[in-house]
Amino acid sequence: MPVVRVSFYQGRSAQQKREIAEAITDALVRIAGSKRDAVNVIFDNIAKEDWVIGGAPEAAEAKRT
């Protein structure tokens, strides 16, 4: 049972998530031979202030660049 986690900032629509999940599922079925109903896609929607890169929150980094 493949499990794929997709982490990104909050703000993607339900439609975008459906399309992403469909594309990931299609790829695993086509390339890996997975059964469609066994593919799990989990979305982690992270607030920008909770995403830290290099020890600093990403939101703070974006303001500096």
What key phrases describe this protein's structure?
65 residues; alpha+beta; Macrophage Migration Inhibitory Factor; two-stranded parallel sheet; two-stranded antiparallel ribbon; 2 helices; 28% strand; elongated
Give the gist of this structure.
With 65 residues, the chain is an alpha+beta fold.
Account of the 3D structure:
The protein has 65 residues and is of the alpha+beta class. The chain has one domain: Macrophage Migration Inhibitory Factor (2-Layer Sandwich), CATH 3.30.429.10. 40% of the residues lie in helices and 28% in strands. The chain is built from two helices and four strands. The chain has helices at 14-32, 58-64, and strands spanning 3-9, 40-46, 52-53, 56-57. The protein has a two-stranded parallel sheet with strand order 1-2. A two-stranded antiparallel ribbon has the order 3-4. Helix 1 (14-32) links the parallel strand 1 and strand 2. The mean pLDDT is 91.
